[in-house]
């Protein structure tokens, strides 16, 4: 029996189930402290594996395409925040103040890695450039996201010192990434042997972090402060941000004379936001009582971008000459 087209993918369904579990059975007290420790461990493991999977030839093949990387970086860390900030008169009345802060936070986080690369491959785009740019976006986000949060959100974060926040994020994300890459000659065979089962670690870590984040928010009264009209407005705003960012990526690519293969990489690396990086960053940057509402827009944006991008990638893949591009 084929899967209904209207049904979300399995990971989206698991995210929804995790939020429901945290809503009815939130972790608190000592179990919540154990859970926080466990989430830190799995995030470190996740980025260690990310570093181990990134090959040196892929880095060298993609790093020379500096114009493409500059465009993607500008869209991710300049255009997105400006868009979220400039649309404030339209955005803020549709949602609660905390959800609007979540929208701004969404605009500051780096691009995805796995899905951007997978979608670029599906669409027959510039794979080496996508690998390099998506991975670089994650590393740049360790520096840029805390600084942008301090500039745009003006809220009391867990750490009043942006440099301290950058240090905490770097310790959780950057250090294991670098260690994993340096240990690639020994770890890569294990990663290849695990094959697609490594996806369980990837998705499981996100689900654990989401459960931890929402547990703290639910204990602090998240859903009692979240009216249904605000949730409907949030859905509209995420769709608007996604449409604007995708249109900007395509317009900039064609205006600057990039090839179709480069346009694909720019679209899927520039218009997406990373749940993997965003949730642990939010846990460092915000008090536990705020994290749930802060990451809620990102959680809605994430499956939306994947579903829309999958359709667009399929259309790119069917373009004339796409098969020849893949062979070469």
TrEMBL record:
Keywords: Membrane, Transmembrane, Transmembrane helix. The keyword Transit peptide does not apply. Signal peptide: none annotated. Pfam families: SBF_like. GO terms for cellular component: plasma membrane. InterPro entries: Na+/solute_symporter_sf, Put_Na-Bile_cotransptr. The chain crosses the membrane at residues 12-28, 34-54, 66-87, 99-122, 129-153, 165-183, 204-224, 230-252, 264-282, 294-317. The keyword DNA-binding does not apply. This is Bile acid:sodium symporter.
């Amino acid at each position: 029996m084929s899967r209904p087209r209207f049904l979300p993918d399995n990971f989206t369904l698991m995210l929804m189930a995790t939020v429901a579990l945290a809503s009815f059975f939130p972790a608190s007290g000592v179990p919540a402290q154990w859970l926080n420790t466990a989430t830190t461990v799995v995030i470190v493991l996740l980025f260690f594996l990310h570093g181990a999977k990134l090959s040196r030839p892929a880095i060298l093949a993609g790093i020379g395409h500096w114009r493409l990387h500059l465009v993607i970086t500008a869209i991710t860390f300049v255009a997105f925040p400006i868009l979220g900030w400039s649309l404030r008169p339209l955005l803020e009345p549709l949602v609660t103040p905390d959800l609007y802060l979540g929208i701004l936070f969404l605009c500051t986080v780096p691009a995805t890695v796995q899905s951007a690369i997978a979608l670029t491959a599906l669409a027959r785009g510039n794979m080496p450039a996508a690998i390099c740019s998506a991975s670089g976006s994650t590393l740049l986000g360790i520096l840029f996201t805390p600084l942008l949060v301090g500039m745009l959100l003006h809220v009391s974060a867990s750490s009043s010192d942006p440099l301290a926040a950058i240090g905490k994020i770097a310790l959780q994300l950057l250090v294991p990434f670098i260690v994993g890459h340096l240990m690639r000659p020994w770890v890569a065979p294990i990663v290849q042997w695990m094959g697609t089962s490594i996806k369980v670690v990837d998705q499981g870590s996100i689900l654990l972090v989401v459960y931890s984040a929402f547990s703290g928010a639910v204990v602090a009264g998240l859903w009692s402060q979240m009216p249904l009209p605000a949730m409907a407005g949030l859905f509209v705003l995420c769709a608007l941000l996604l449409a604007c960012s995708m249109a900007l990526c395509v317009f900039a690519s064609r205006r600057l004379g990039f090839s179709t293969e480069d346009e694909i990489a720019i679209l899927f690396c520039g218009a997406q936001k990373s749940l993997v990086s965003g949730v642990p960053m939010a846990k460092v940057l915000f008090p536990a009582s705020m994290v749930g509402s802060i990451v809620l827009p990102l959680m809605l944006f994430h499956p939306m971008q994947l579903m829309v991008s999958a359709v667009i990638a399929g259309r790119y893949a069917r373009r004339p000459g796409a098969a020849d591009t893949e062979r070469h």
